[in-house]
Amino acid sequence: MQEIKTSKFFPIAKETLKYGEKYPYSIYRRVDERIFSLLLQKNEIFKKSTQCFMVDENNTKLYVKDDDKQYYQLYIQNHIRELLEDEKINIDVKATFIKEIASETMNDLFESDVNCENLSKINNIIDTTVKLILTEKNAMYSMLKVTSYDYYTYTHCIDVATYAIGFGTYLNLSKEQLELLGRAAMLHDIGKKKIPHSIITKNGKLTKEEFEIVKSHPTFSVEVLKESGESNELLLKLIEQHHEKCDGTGYPKGLKEQEIEVLAKIISVCDVFNALTTRRTYKDRMSSYEAFKIMNNEMKNHLCALTLRNFICFMGCNKDLT
């Protein structure tokens, strides 16, 4: 049995391992804290053997080397539909699959050029998420469990999309509306690619001048997407309006409540809630109760009152997560 002591490893879902399949990466099981043993060689067919008992154990965790992480994630991405349709796979694992794919895709989107190919990947993630939530009873609860507690722009986008799709489902929006809402929420901050990195990652409060630069990001988001061939005007409008406020003090156009799209109001509430309940380098995360208190009291003229009230009710249905 080959044992590896020095390499770094990435945990994978053992539910992906099936008899008769072969994988473009070697798979390892953990022996103890620092020792991993080879379970399946790269491109070797997984057959019934004594090793199967190792996989069937409840405490068995599987890994790939960090160098093979990209190949594992590509495998998940290419097989996501069949994995989500597999009734033997736990809903929590399915939610993790989606979160992992979304994280890699959004990170790539922020680190590289925005083009039709990676925007198509975003569409597939949203379609898959909507389908899972509409077909699996506890999917929304599982999706919310894998939202992030630490704030990064790309994970924030994923979490806002998760909240928005779940909330939209609670509001009985159509499948088409959910997909549009999810796409807009996922891409709402893509314009921050054009904001200096030093401002985005600043450890502390922004100066007035820096905040004026940040306020350009909804407009930049629209520009980036248009440059990439996006032509859905409603999608672009939702993204542009996610920082508008009902009293007209928002940006970039200073719209008032009746001028703001209903779906943009949903994104705005989800955006604020996630920002308040995630940890940053200069502040700890708030509890849901603390966040709702601020949203109700200090932001009552900014957020749509009906949307906020419904969102609180939606989160109340998932009270174990609040």
TrEMBL record:
Q: What's the short name of a Pfam family annotated to this entry?
A: HD_5
Superkingdom assignment: Bacteria
Q: Which Gene3D superfamilies match?
A: Hypothetical protein af1432
SMART domains documented for this protein: HDc
Xref: InterPro entries: HD/PDEase_dom (IPR003607), HD_GYP_dom (IPR037522), HDIG_dom (IPR006675)
Keywords attached to this Swiss-Prot or TrEMBL record, sorted alphabetically, are:
Membrane
In this chain the HD-GYP domain maps to 132-322
User: NCBIfam families of this UniProt entry?
Assistant: HDIG (TIGR00277)
The protein's name in its UniProt record: HD-GYP domain-containing protein
Organism, by scientific name, is Malaciobacter mytili LMG 24559
